Structure formats: C-alpha cells, structure tokens
Amino acid sequence: MAPPAMGQSFMSANVKKPLFHKRSNQQEVIGGEIGVGEELSYLLLVNFSPIHRAKCRIINEATRGYLLRSGERSGVTMFCSEKKSLEVERIVKANDHEYNEKFQYADNRIHTSKYSILTFLPINLFEQFQRVANAYFLCLLILQLIPEISSLTWFTTIVPLVLVITMTAVKDATDDFFRHKSDNQVNNRQSEVLIDSKLQNEKWMNVKVGDIIKLENNQFVAADLLLLSSSEPHGLCYVETAELDGETNLKVRQALSVTSELGADISRLARFDGIVVCEAPNNKLDKFMGLLSWKDSKHSLNNEKIILRGCILRNTSWCFGMVIFAGPDTKLMQNSGKTKFKRTSIDRLMNTLVLWIFGFLICLGIILAIGNSIWESQIGDQFRTFLFWNEGEKSSVFSGFLTFWSYIIILNTVVPISLYVSMEVIRLGHSYFINWDRKMYYSQKAIPAEARTTTLNEELGQIEYIFSDKTGTLTQNIMTFKRCSINGRIYGEVHDALGQKTEVTQEKKPVDFSVKSQVGREFQFFDHSLMESIELGDPKVHEFLRLLTLCHTVMSEENSAGELIYQVQSPDEGALVTAARNFGFIFKSRTPDTITIEELGTPVTYQLLAILDFNNTRKRMSVIVQNPEGQIKLYSKGADTILFEKLHPSNEDLLSLTSDHLSEFAGEGLRTLAIAYRDLDDKYFKEWHKMLEDANAATEERDERIAGLYEEIERDLMLLGATAVEDKLQEGVIETVTSLSLANIKIWVLTGDKQETAINIGYACNMLTDDMNDIFVIAGNTAVEVREELRKAKENLFGQNSNFSNGHVVGEKKQQLELDSVVEETVTGDYALIINGHSLTVYDQWFITLFNIVYTSLPVLAMGIFDQDVSDLNSMDCPQLYEPGQLNLLFNKRRFFICVLHGIYTSFVLFFITYGAFYNMAGEDGQHISDYQSFAVTMATSLVIVVSVQIALDTSYWTFINHVFIWGSIAIYFSILFAMHSNGIFGIFPNQFPFVGNARHSLTQKCIWLVILLTTVASVMPVVAFRFLKVDLYPTLSDQIRQRQKAQKKARPLSSRRPRTRRSSSRRSGYAFAHQEGYGELITSGKNMRAKNPPPTSGLEKTHYNSTSWIENLCKKTTDTVSSISQDKTVKL
Q1: Res 968: pLDDT
Q2: Where is the stretch described as Disordered (predicted)?
Q3: C-alpha torsion angle, residues 239, 244, 247, 252 (rounded to 10)
C-alpha cells in the first residue's frame, strides 16, 4: 500500500474500513485496516505532540501531520507509545524553560568519553574479551577449576590473564581520562546567558534550549543558535567555520529583519517569546529548515539564519542568538559519532592466528586423547587392580575425554597471550616518543605532536593512502600578488644591468610605497617599471588597476587607528585589491548602489549597476558600473580558458601574447587570472537590465534565464591582461609530499575548488610533475561515468607502474621483531612428557607462570620500543624503506609460520639434547642426577638463555636499557630459581616448593653447563648462519643501508633549503574565489553595509615559498644511496 499523497486524506488512501478513531487534547489518531495483498500499515498523526511520538519511521509529511510506517505485516496498525521517542520535529519557545522542559531536550553538556566510573569495568571487560586470546584464557581458567581435568593450578593462568587485563584497562582508562578532561574543559566554558531579564555568566553545560545567549567577537559559539541580532547592519555577522569544515574564509550569517530590530536591548530580548518549529537534530551542516512564529506572523528559517556550535564569531562586536540545539543534538556533535573500539590490522591478524593456534591445539588435544583412550583400553586395565580406580573411571572413552581437557590446559602456553601485553606497552611507549619528538614540535605556536590514542601507532607504518584537505593543510590560504601582464607587457620581473631577467636577491630593493597613504605594509613588488607606467599615465595600466579596484565583492572598513581594513570572502580577491591599493587605486567604500575608490589621490564614485556573480560554472565574475562621465562599463575577471572565448576578434594579437605570458606565469607555479572589459551602450544596457529584472521575478527556469543573460552581455570583451598570484604553501609541504610519493604512498587532495585550481595545487605541491606524460582528468558526474573513465585511464597506464626496492621501515621492524620473538618463545616454552598415558609438564608450574611475564617480557619490550634497523637520517634519505610495511612483508601469515617452525626446531633441540645427555648421566661425585627436577631445571635454564641470546641477535640498536633488560632478565631468572629451591621458602610453603636444593645441586655440575652450552649453540647457530648467508647473498635495502651505516662514522647531513628554480609547463588557470557563490546579491541589497567600525583584524601574511630543486636533490640522493650500495638493484623513481 503506497502512502497517501501530500494533502490527501488518509481515510481515502485505499483504507478498507476504520478500526479506531481516538481524539485527545493535542492528537488525533486515525487508523485503518490494510486490504488483501498489502504489506504495510500506516498511521497518521495529526497535530501530534513530539513528546508522545512513537518510535516509527517517517515516510511522508503533510501539513503538521506525520505519516508513519509501523512495519507490521498484519492488518492492524500499531498504537503509539507514550514514552519519549525518536524526535521528528523540534518546537522551541524563547525564554521559557518550563515550556521547553516538557519535551525533554538534551542539555548542553557533551560527552566524548567512552566510560564512566560505573560503566568502565563491564564495558572495558566486554571489549577486552572480544580478543580471542583473552576469551580463551578465561575459558581455560574455568577449566582449571575442575579438579578431574586440571593438570595445572589455577594461578598459572590467572596471573598472566589478570596482568594483561589490568595493563590494558589502565591504558584505556588513561585515554578516557583525557577525554573526560577535555569534556570538562569545554563544558565549563563561560557564556553570557539572558536570565531573569539580565545577562549572567553561565557554564556551557548549564545552557538550555530556548536560552538567549550573547556572543562577543572571537568567541566560540556554545550551541546551535538562531541569530536574532548583531552589532552589524541588518543583523549580519561573520563566522569562521574552520572547526566544522576546515574553511578559514569567513561566512556571512544574517538575522531576520523582525528580530534584528531587537538589537542589544536587554528588556526587549527578555520579552521575546517567539516559537521555532524546525527539523529534528541531524548532521547536515549546510541545511536547516524551520519556521519562527512571533507577533502573529510566521517567518521561514534557513541555514543562513543559524550559527552552529564550533564556529567562532569574527569581525562582529556582538550578537544575540536563541539556542535551538544543545549538547549532543548540535550538528557538530551529530557529526562526531560515537567513540568506537578500534583494532589495528595487526590486532585482526593476531586474532586470526590465535584462532588457527587454537584449532591446532584442539587437534593436538584430540590426537593425544585418542592415544590415551587406546592406551587405557590395551594397557591401562593392567594397572587398575593395583591403583584401585573407581568404577566410573574404568571407561577408556571417558578417560580420553578427561585427558583431552587436561592437555588443553597443559598446552595453553601455545596461545600467545603475552603478545597482547607486549603490544599494549610498546604502543604506549611509542605514543610517548611521538609526543616527545622535537622534530615534530611546531615552535611558532609552541604546539608539540600529540598521540591522541595509543592503539593505532603501528598503523603509521602501513599507510597506503593519504587523503588531505587543501585549505589550511597544504596551503596557508594566503595569496600574494607577484606578476601581471598589461597590454602585452609583463610587470613584476627583475632585470640586471644588461636587461637580462634575474632572480630576486636580498640586494634588490622593492618599490617604495611608503610615500602613499593606506598602503599594505607587507606588500612587496620589485619591478619599478609598473610605477613608472602609472606615473606616465598609461591608460591601459590605469584601466587594469581600476578593474582590480572595482570588480570584486570585498567589504572595507577603518579600524580605530584609521587604517583601511578589507574583509574578503576569498584570499584571491584580497591579494588583487591590496595590490591595486599599493599602486594608487584604493578601494574605499561601497553602498548598495555605489563604489567609491581613490584614483591616484582623487576620490571617484562609480554607480554600481549590476554584479554578475561568480559560481563554479561561470568561473568568472563581472561588475557593470557607470563612471562620473556617464560611461557604462563592464569589468570582468576570470579563468583564462573561459574569458578568452568571450573576447572580441580584434584581440587576436594581444591574446596570443598574453597566452604566452600566462604560460610563463603558470610555469613558475603562479595562479593566473585573465582581465577584460567592455564599453556598453546606455540603451542596450537598459534593455538588458529590464530582461534581467524579469528573469529575477520568474518562477520557472529562473537560474537558466539569468545565466543566459549573463552570457549575452559578457561578450565582445576587450582584453587588458592577466594577473599572477602566488598561493602560499605550508612550510615543508613540497618536501613532505615528495618523500611520501617516493615511499609509494598515494596522495589524494580533497578540495572544493575547480579543476584548474586543483591542478595548480598539484603542480605546486609536486604531486603532478612535468615528467608525467599521461595525466588523466576524471570529469564524470555519476558513479558509472567515473568508473568508466577510471577504467580507461587504468588501461592506458597499464604496465607503467614504477617498482621500488624492498626494505624495512624502522617502526614496523620493531613490531615484527617483537612479534617474532614472542611467537618463538610461546612455541619453545610449550613441551610436556607423556607418562603412562597421563601428562606431566617438563617445567614446573611457577616457571610456566613467570616465563612470559617476568623472564622474557622486558627484553622483548626493550627491543620493540627502542630498536631501529637504520637511523632516522637514512630513513629520510631513502623513503623506499617504508614500502614493506604497506605490503605487510614484516609480519604476515607466512612469517608467522616460519617463526612457528623455528620454535618447533628449538623445542626439539632443547628437549632431545637434554634428554639424551640425561639418559645415562652421573654427577662429578658419581651420584645419579637424571631425576625429573634436574632435567626440568636444565631445560628451563637453556630456554631462558636461548631466548635471551635470540633477542640479542635480533636487536640492531643497543641502548643501556636493552643491556639491562636482556642480561638482567637472566639474572632475575637465576635469583628466582635459587629462591624457589631454597630452605626458607620451603619452610613457608612446603607443598608448593618441595624441591629443596635441587637448583644449587644441578647447576654446580660442569656437565649440566656443557649441556646448556650445547643446546644454546645448536639452537642459535642455524639462525646465525641463515641470516649471514641471506644478508650476503640476498640483502634487502635495509640490510644494505645498515652495512653502509656501519662503514660510516657519521651520517651524511640532509641537504639544506633548496634555491628557487623555474618550471615550465602548460598554462593552468588559477582563478579560484570561494567554494560557494559570491555575495553579489547581498552587496546590491545593501544588507551588509556597516553602520560602524568593527574590531580591527590583521591583514594578509607573507611566508617564504620554497622551490622544487630540493625534490631533484632528494631523488638524486635516493638513487645515489641505493646504487652506491648495490649495483644490481635498480630503484626506479
């Protein structure tokens, strides 16, 4: 059954017969029965209060009515619940807490933390036991509590399990503590709230829906507000939305005219009792729909009337707003999402491997259980007469069943639970290294690096793709006017005494603008010929600068010091208007109908007849003005690819020359813009303007008609020239992008700019280079089109991928070595004797308990935290070292099974060499020492020494801590061993430590130490031999660089900052105003004209722009580094 159309009554929408008709104070519920073959029932709520709405999905909306789908397949509709449910509409009344509280709206307190004191333990334990190893050991602990099958005491499992759980919980609690701290800092910010007809300071968390808040300049917005009034004319205010969308360009918001009249009158604001009916909380930052009812009239609301939480009020002394959404209902928090438990790829791989290990353990247990059943049925019966077994235990099948669980307990160490603890500690250590890294410290703002989570560090060594925003990330969003071409002549170049073009040096003096008033102090221009042309009265130069002064949407104001300040929507416009101001053409002020400028000291007022605004389709903007002499002119600036098509045929020669200049500008990485004008006949303009007014009043095809009229008048233009603006990149962007590219990391830059600007940024950042023969522009508008274009591009590029040499990345090798060592320890530490069908562990229970958490944990942690295969300098010189981490070459299933085989080999060596030596051995005193406990002590000592030597061989970078942890662990082992076999501890715990003096007796025998030495050599030598041959015959890139490091006493320093270099390429237009349409309509309406001066703001800043020769040096250095190590290996850059 389809829902009824908008405006159609529900009773007429295929309803067979009414089932009920209930009416109450604020609701009317009409239900109906579904006809045969219809699957869904519908319920229409007319004037239904939001507090009583059911948890049903909205399907359609009629006037104040909501059509809801119950989801039932029966013929009876659902009655709606009386509980607070999913909000489908918000109703807010200003200055009325009692009215708003009945809707139970959220307060303004935010929670980004995961836990509270009460929920931490259950939630954290639930998350931790999602790890397979933790869940396994919990089950194992339960099994060990059953006496019939427990072959080991419970503490052998609970001690490592509790240690793992506790350390992880402490780390998670620490992370969440900082989230709580951040939340408290935000929640306790102060804001001025209108309470009892006066403004009072109130904490953000106490702000309620319906409150009226006063904001001041440069203050964060506390909640999603309906703008009521501001210090600016017509209720305008300027906000910065960088916290929401990353854009630093100011956005304009405007209050309703009926509320802007409230101004700053506290008494009138306190009496404001408007009711807002709007959409429910959602995460759409660019959309808002609502209705304000006040004084018997209704006013529609849109996104331009709303100030969102996270914005900062700029260039506006004050404003008042009414809270619509608070706390978790704000659009900022709706986009933040719930904090999730994140797992790294290594975590996921380890879970898979643990499942495989567990499967192997089950299979091994089954095989041993079957063997036990066979033994019991064939041989075990012969012992029952002497052992007096119970009747219930005579079944060989039941004996095998119990033995299965017994072996599962005995062989539990095959599951590497200690690996998880080591991973957590290493991640915590690495996060502190990130925070302490001086090379990642930003001194200008005293901001260090901050690892906000300690669970994802190793992912930094496996990055394949980087998605980067442009504005504020790659660029500083600061533009500087550098060059221009006027009537076929380039201005901005520097020439020597012979007339040859040279680079700007410190000895070269810039043009002195100090004699002029209202100049930009930071603007520098080194070509004096432009000032000479201006002073000589060149009409083309004057017209060029006049166009820059008139054709824009900049707002001007004077601060308290009388300095002229420009408020720009786009930094491009700011750069051009500022340049014109320094050359004597100063934009002074504007009204809805006029623009006042100063031309070489003479004030001139132009009538503003029309603004043909910029958008991403037109890629240009124009203004039509009338000068004091009555001449009407159209001034236009835009992308050269667009504007050149609009030129009059008589511009052919100038067009060719200007195109060459644009190519030269683009070759230097500058953003280009074409400049043109047209003289208009008065009669023609009046006819055109009449058609424009008709088009603006049209209800159908309005935008198409206006666009057609713009095209009509923007033709037969006369070319004046072009501008070239330098876009300021962030410091180090080019070097960083180059290194990332050489490391085989794919970089995607996300930008709302048009294609020309995006290509410009690509070349400026060296993501696109002139060496790239095939650059494909994907311009599809649908998923199918984009997929098809990508397929074609892939076909054209097939087989042209560059191959990089394999190597090791420093951070990833730490993880790989640590993982390898723990896996090997796990396998070698697992061995049991099978005696008469029953199990007996070789090692005593305390050794099994302490092996992973005491004897071998610290060396593994020291290696994982401090080790590095090559130095940081060599890592930067050879970015290809990063690639193995991307390809998971350092730890994968194959490497895991190699480690398992290594562990099995070591286990066999440890057991059988010791067993063979003890088979018929006597001590120096002639006494027999082949007892079980001496055998266990010898094997345990051999195992600890072998593992420590193996970790020492794996360590590439030795520190004092490495030495202490590795050799200290051996010392700790012997200390604990002798303590457990001493008379003192036997006197305290006689049942737990019965082998008094065994360690002292065994380890004083020379033959025992010979056995330990033999097992150590037999275990380690194959590994040493294999690694020696591998490094000598098939060295990896990191092996080669490590050998080179050893041969060098000093690491070669990095190359210094590179000199400027020129790049020739095809022309790329740099025309880029804001990402949205301009404010031409707002300017001509007069709504943004200031009544008084706002607070002062800083002007454009200037930073050094790096050239690209460093890239060539790096590529050459990388190639030289690799080729000097191995002539056989080719590194293709």
Answers
A1: 92
A2: 1046-1071, 1084-1104
A3: -30
- Taking alpha carbons only, the member of 831, 881, 800 closest to residue 1118 is 881
Binding-site residue positions for ATP: 469-471, 573, 614, 637, 671, 751-753
pTM of the model: 0.64
Write out pLDDT tens, residues 216-226.
999 999 999 99
**Annotated binding-site positions:** 469-471, 573, 614, 637, 671, 751-753
Higher per-residue pLDDT: 267 or 751: 267
The two structure tokens encoding residue 801? 């991928």
Note the Cα 572 to chain centre separation in Å.
28
| Residue 857 dihedral angles phi and psi, to the nearest 5° | -75, -45
Which single residue is written with the structure tokens 């000199």? Answer: 1059
DSSP string for 33-91: ---TT----EEEEES--GGG--S-EEEEEETTEEEEE----SSSPPPPPSS------EE
Cα 652 to Cα 544, 648, 655: the distances in Å are: 19, 8, 5
N residues, the chain: 1133
Rounded to 5°, angle at Cα 869 from 1043 and 415: 135
Please provide residue 524's backbone torsions phi and psi, each rounded to the nearest 5 degrees: -130, 140
Tokens 């098809």, residue located: 788
Residue holding tokens 């360690």? 999
Kindly report the three-state secondary structure assignment for every residue of 649-697: HHHHHHHHHHHHHHHHHHHCCCEEEEEEEEEECHHHHHHHHHHHHHHHH
- CA 225 to chain CA centroid, Å, is 28
Active site residues: 469
Report the candidate in 544, 629, 527 with the shortest Cα–Cα distance to residue 585. Answer: 544
Distance of CA 684 to the CA centre of its chain: 55
pLDDT over 80 (residue 259): yes
Report, in this order, helix, strand and coil percent for the chain, each rounded to 5: 45, 20, 35
The SS3 assignment for 761 reads helix
Parallel, antiparallel, or unpaired for β 57-62 and 65-69? antiparallel
Q: How far apart are CA 258 and CA 235, in angstroms?
A: 10
pLDDT of res. 681: 92
> What three-state secondary structure class fits 501?
strand
Query: Distance (Å, rounded) from C-alpha 872 to C-alpha 1115?
Result: 17
Which amino acid, residue 1029? L
998 vs 986: CA distance, rounded Å? 12
CA atoms within 13 A on the CB side of 614: 29
Question: Distance between CA atoms of 161 and 143, rounded to whole angstroms?
Answer: 14
pLDDT tens track for 473-509:
887 878 889 899 999 999 988 766 666 677 766 666 7
Long-range (24+ apart) CB contacts under 8 A made by 529-534 are: 529/491, 530/484, 530/491, 530/492, 530/583, 531/583, 533/486, 533/491, 534/583, 534/584, 534/600
Tokens 């009204």 correspond to what residue? Answer: 591
Q: Which two tokens stand for residue 17?
A: 């017969």
**Residue 676: φ, ψ to 5°:** -150, 165
The span from the first CA to the last CA of the chain, in angstroms, equals 63
Give which of 521, 600, 592 is closest to 561, Cα–Cα: 521
d(CA 168, CA 454): 11
| Residues in the annotated binding site for Mg(2+) | 469, 471
Distance CA 156, CA 137 (A): 11
Which of 485-489, 822-826, 1001-1005 is the most confident on average?
485-489
Identify which of 626, 596, 620 has the alpha carbon closest to the alpha carbon of residue 608: 626
Average pLDDT over residues 809-821: 44
CA 437 to chain centre: 20
Q: How many CB atoms lie within 10 A of CB 645?
A: 10
CB–CB of 1041/1125 below 8 Å? Answer: yes
